[in-house]
Amino acid sequence: MRPASARRWPFPPEVLALAGPTAAGKSALAHAAALALGAEIVVADPFQRYRGLEIAADSPRPAALAEVRYHCAGDLGLTERSTAAGFAARAHAAIDACAAAGRPAVVTGGTGLYLRAALADLAFPDEAAPADREWAERLAARDPDAALAALRSRDPAAAARVDAANPRRLARALEVAAAGGRTGDALWAATARRPTLIVAVARPREALDRRIAERVRRELDEGLVAELEAALDTPGVAREPLQVIGAREVAAVRAGELDASELPERLAARTRRLARKQLTWLRKEPGVVELDLGDAPAEEALPALLGLWRDAGEGPVTSAR
Q1: Hey, what's the torsion of the CAs at 246, 251, 255, 260, to 10 degrees?
Q2: Is the pTM of this model over 0.85?
Q3: Domain contains 1
Q4: The dihedral of CA 120, 124, 130, 132: what is its sign?
Q5: Burial label, 303 (beta-carbon count in 10 A; 0-12, 13-18, 19+)
Q6: Which residues constitute the domain of residue 49?
Q7: For position 99, what pLDDT does the model report?
Q8: Residues 53 and 162 in one domain
Q9: What is the rounded average pLDDT for all residues in the chain?
Q10: Cβ(250)–Cβ(55) under 8 Å?
Q11: CATH number for the domain including 50?
Q12: Tell me, what's the pLDDT at 79?
């Protein structure tokens, strides 16, 4: 993550993008910013798109939806696929409509690909044929080493980049390569479609780990297990929604492979790993302004965020701490 020191925009930004690790407080700060700016929110999260995963995905609740217009939240059923290309089309339409109406758009999410897809015109590879997709998914699940070797033989650059410990990402890279496509650097090199200020919220590790544990406890109290059991039992449920953190663990509890008492720590540990990966991605992104939230509620950083927004169109932009 690099402070965008001494950077000037040719004109004020139209889009405020809030990135950062899960549980850091992005959603709360984005909501506060939208209220202050008269903006609408575009959610860059594949799981918040699904109706029926509101607890697991920490989706905006009815009170928030009543105050601010949200896009790309709850727009899919559990039997539908969520693709970055499909999301990009919806996100671009929402952002462009905001610009046409003279309103800012606030884009928020911790998924790097979806955040980029909302902000830029990315060169997505063609969708793989069902047979290629099924083969890649089976191989990645059964033998990750063989899947990585198959990917390396088809697209060495993709094999070097992929998170081989993540079966979903490994399968996706392999299916694209098997279909003759490439997920090369051009996908990531695109610039923002509209003037955009990208702010990454940060927390001390101890504070973030505590917030993750608190979120897991809250979600379990709200009925996370019942929600995920219902998703697992949905006829024709798509593969994508079942990649959400918790689905695999709840399925293991139901199968007797995991004791229910271990569920809270398993969920917290997996969420901590996700947060670390999100931070790794952010550190590689150019032009990202860091906003350190410390250990305070996210909304308390609103004045600093609004200051960055104002400064982005007037002069130097530096990290706020």
Answers
A1: 20
A2: no
A3: no
A4: negative
A5: exposed
A6: 15-122+191-207+279-312
A7: 96
A8: no
A9: 88
A10: no
A11: 3.40.50.300
A12: 98
